Amino acid sequence: MRDDRETIEITQSEAQRLVRNYKGYQFFTVHFVKRTNGKLRIMNCRKGVAKGLRGGALSFNPVEHNLEGVYDIPKAGQRCISLDEISRVAMCKKVYLIKN
After folding, report:
1. Is the predicted pLDDT of residue 26 greater than 60, yes or no?
2. Can you give the pTM of this predicted structure?
3. Which of 18, 31, 55, 83 has the fewest CB atoms within 10 Å, i.e. is most exposed?
4. Long-range contact pairs involving 64-72 (C-beta distance under 8 Å, separation at least 24)
5. Measured over all CA atoms, what is the biggest interatomic distance in the chain, rounded to whole angstroms?
6. In whole numbers, what is the pLDDT of the chain averaged over residues?
7. How far apart are the first and last CA of the chain?
8. Is residue 95 within 8 Å of 42, Cβ to Cβ?
9. Residue 23 lies in a domain
């Protein structure tokens, strides 16, 4: 981890707003617990990427399930972040740690 990043403690709801309202097209990293298996997921991702979209509609509304769609850089595809289980976000040269 880089030492030159400012570390800030925020609440879970602030972390949700931070990720959901992020308008930048730069990469960011988010740590969260996957709903499917309960394991920690560290995702290096970006918002606003249309690559990999097939044009079809999702069978569910991500907002209703408190999910945020992003482009997963290492896996080269669209994925969803579980906003309920975020534990850490790194973006814009800042690290946001979620306090319990």
Report:
1. yes
2. 0.84
3. 55
4. 66/16, 68/19, 68/20, 70/43, 70/45, 70/46, 71/45, 71/46, 71/47, 72/43, 72/44, 72/45
5. 42
6. 87
7. 22
8. no
9. yes
Alpha-carbon distances of 56 from 39, 47, 59, 66, rounded to whole Å = 29, 19, 9, 20
- Regarding beta strands 77-82 and 67-72, do their DSSP bridges make them parallel or antiparallel, or are they unpaired? antiparallel
Token pair recorded at residue 88: 């850490």
Go through the chain and tell me how many residues it has. Answer: 100
Find the CATH number of the domain harbouring 45.
2.30.30
Residue 19: give the domain boundaries. 6-98
Residue 1: inside a domain = no
CA–CA gap between residue 81 and residue 69 (Å, rounded): 6
**How many domains does the chain divide into?**
1
Residue 66 located in a structural domain? yes
Q: How confident is the model at residue 90 (pLDDT cuts 50, 70, 90)?
A: very high
